[in-house]
Amino acid sequence: MTTPxxxxxxxxxxxxxxxATETISKHHTIHExxxxxxxxxxxxxxxxxxxxxxxxxxLTDPSPSAQAVAEDIGAGQGLTDEDQPGTVVVAAxxxxxxxxxxxxxxxxxxxxxxDIASVKVAIAQEIxxxxxxxxxxxxxxxxxxGTHPMAGRERSGPVAARGELFTAAPWVLCTTSETPQYVIDxxxxxxxxxxxxxxxxxxxxxxxxxxxxxHLPQIAASLLASRLQxxxxxxxxxxxxxxxxxxxxxxxxxxxWVQILTANAEQILPELHGxxxxxxRLINTLxxxxxxxxxxxxxxxxxxxxxxxxxxxGKHGGPAQGFAQVTVLxxxxxxxxxxxLQAVADAGVNVEDLRMEHSSGYQVGMLxxxxxxxxxxxLVNALTxxxxxxx
Amino acid sequence: MTTPxxxxxxxxxxxxxxxATETISKHHTIHExxxxxxxxxxxxxxxxxxxxxxxxxxLTDPSPSAQAVAEDIGAGQGLTDEDQPGTVVVAAxxxxxxxxxxxxxxxxxxxxxxDIASVKVAIAQEIxxxxxxxxxxxxxxxxxxGTHPMAGRERSGPVAARGELFTAAPWVLCTTSETPQYVIDxxxxxxxxxxxxxxxxxxxxxxxxxxxxxHLPQIAASLLASRLQxxxxxxxxxxxxxxxxxxxxxxxxxxxWVQILTANAEQILPELHGxxxxxxRLINTLxxxxxxxxxxxxxxxxxxxxxxxxxxxGKHGGPAQGFAQVTVLxxxxxxxxxxxLQAVADAGVNVEDLRMEHSSGYQVGMLxxxxxxxxxxxLVNALTxxxxxxx
Lengths: 391, 391
Fold this sequence. Notes:
The structure is a homodimer of 391-residue chains. Chain A is α/β, with parallel strands linked by helices and 391 residues long. Chain A folds into 3 domains: 7-201, Rossmann fold, CATH 3.40.50; 208-278, 6-phosphogluconate dehydrogenase C-terminal fold; 324-390, Alpha-Beta Plaits (2-Layer Sandwich), CATH 3.30.70.260. Chain A is built from 15 helices and 11 strands. In chain A, the strands form 2 sheets. Chain A has an 8-stranded mixed sheet with strand order 3-2-1-4-5-6-7-8, sandwiched between helices. Chain A has a 3-stranded antiparallel sheet with strand order 9-11-10. In chain A, helix 3 (64-73) links the parallel strand 2 (57-60) and strand 3. The longest helix of chain A is centred in the middle third of the chain and has 25 residues, at 203-227. The two termini of chain A are 43 Å apart. In chain A, 52% of the residues are buried. Mean pLDDT of chain A is 89; it is low at 1-21. At the A-B interface, helix 1, strand 8, helix 8, helix 9 and helix 10 of A face helix 1, strand 8, helix 8, helix 9 and helix 10 of B.
């Protein structure tokens, strides 16, 4: 579908990333100007990204200040009554996306309209209901295509927007048998120009997929994190990366997730029922932990967890890979981490993955570097020779 | 209790970490030789660490090859019949720890015996049962102290052992009102010489704490990951850091965790019941997502997740802090990451936290750097000026 943009021989400096960007065909079928409805994080980022490749972008948002900020950032110009957008990107909250899509289809009878909400069936149903109620013609409805760019940041709002936000991020296009090719082409071009990786799914496939790989993890993290309200400060001092990893996304925005979870309830429920069955089984088992078969039960749950986790693709969408981990102690000050990584680079070893863990009482950090297993021994030797403490 | 070893003015090279180590008092009350029972990852690491500060270490393991590897690595010498260890560290699997503690208390009537198992009440109960059955005197039992070093790695076995494994890791000492001071002192000295941060708790407090901050997260990750067995490959292509983070520890070793979860079942069950109640409530709510009050219900769960997650201490045990995040695109080859971090260091900004995210289709990585919020703008400007793509 899309070919990788960067080969492994690209040099690091963004001058070369920019050069590589130049080689992407700028040819596109998007009808300008592009109107972005909703200048939050995603809408403003789309505006910035499309402007950076030379498209004319208009903006509108119910909040005058949000729109003003987006204009000031350079994401586009404010929509006026005379404007006739050829393409409309609805970047509004899921709750109002359907209504905004219908408004846009009616107001600009030649425009292609796409949305970017996290759920697709609910929006499609709103469009279909509008057609059934006579508020929209079937032909008008064909100018709409549901899409979902899977990018985001922990902050929200236009101030955090970046045009590069969608670089190498998945962007799902949800076509049906009735979607005209030119509409698909416009949506594809938007995603492609913003640097995303395009996937095609039906709305049902999409909602089922995100229920499993995004919505259920969010629920699990929130369920787990909410337990911590009853955890003592002393116990929390013992918290390690396991707790941090499993609860990290519990810091998500409630108002957004309420909309997503209620809109996708139908696809989420089977997953919740499955999890409930496993949890009930575990509760039964641990209520009689010395009973015959109890250990086998728990081992089966752990083993199924192993198998499921191993199915998650590794780097760059390839097969799940086992990398070897090298943990280096670093002092907690500017330059410390770069010094350690310089030593790794000098040893000629590529850093496949990277994370930090912090010590509970000391101003020392642990830099956890994933490397190809065959390189680990050499790297540990090289670092140790230079005086680094390797765990 | 323990003072931080490293101040922020320490220079990065481990020569200075070593110098700082020198200033730690080597005075200790440990009776040598120290015998380590069980040369797995932790036992062998303890051996290496104690030998590196000059203690005489003996080793024993039911597996001749595991013991031979540990000896070859330099973790200690094999135990002989003539040896009289003054201190015994039982580093066996939780299932056999109690029996090994009792054996050691009986065989060496002057030795202090400590264990390192992940659960403490179960072990204490085994010791008490032995006293009640007349297999051990109460005085003998007083020479035992339960401890738990909270360090570890995804690999197991002596080959992965490192003496520095416990540096800045929490090490819990579980004392009761009967534990003699000299026994506490020996255990404290072991932990301190290995560089750990010492915490004192009763066995019940310990088991309750680890149930909440370690065992429940493990269960949640395994429950969530096991669902992925039914997830299509196409859906998994959309997986992002949220799924990866929440399922990372689902790759844990089933045989070890079966022992831990069944041994600590009593403390884990209340947490599972609480989670079940929340899950049932959510299932009810999402079964009628348009009902009045449904959204409030879901919002409450999300909000409680926010609150719980915010209670997890930030870096170095301090209050949970909000850092600002700066995401830089890096090419995926040796030297790329160090080049980006050099630019951050040149800008004079400290890296508070660090992780990588990988793109699904491209050979490009996203380096996510946490910085003090007040430095973010300066850093983004500095990086952008140098040509880096900042998301």
